[in-house]
Amino acid sequence: MNRKYRLLALDMDGTLLQDDHEVSPETVRWIKEAVRQGIHVCLSTGRPFQDAYPYAKQLELTTPMVTVNGSEVWRAPYELYRRSLLDSKLVAEMHELAVETGAWFWAYSVERLYNQENWCEDVENQEWLKFGYTSEDDEVRHRILMRLQDMGGLEITNSSPVNLEINPQGVNKATGIKQVCELLGLDMSQVVAVGDSLNDLAVIQQAGLGVAMGNAQQTVKDEADLVVASNNENGIVEVIRDHILIEG
Asked: Which DSSP helix (H) or strand (E) runs through 175?
């Protein structure tokens, strides 16, 4: 059957996963049915590979994955295709800013997760993938955002309304999914991208069908082609059943 859409790119937290961080049995069933019918299902997440892969294994996915907001693209499980690193000098500056503002912070290196409680002593000699801040204080987040924009060379998004996530400039889930399309011989017009936060925005805007979850941030809903039920109400099932596995 000639289907209009061939690749389903799924954000994880707030999208594929319910608030309890589980995938509902109904969603598991429909994802496996999509795969059975020849649809590529790709996890596209801000999480690092080691935190995302157990879910790919549960869903029996062997297709490419986009992790750390696009800083890593995996051709297959444990087979890295592309990696984009942050400038370690910028990471040192971002750390100084976190200390100055008192915001909680974390960062993923290639090797491990660092945060406010166990910061790295040797920033210069690590390979950095992503830096993040969390603050409930809108003014603090705004101040951080302004300073980050002044630094330059950074891609700034979020995975919740109270955080900021920073990748190398030009690196996001859209660039990651484009790489996946190249690997699979597909076009972005054949992609359905689903998400809930600003780190999903670029790929939702550039996919053939951009879908916001019912629990998505308003900016994401405004830019999406379609809004479905929330992550706790099997919104992914709606996407697969009503928009992908239909005759075309």
From this structure: helix 173-184
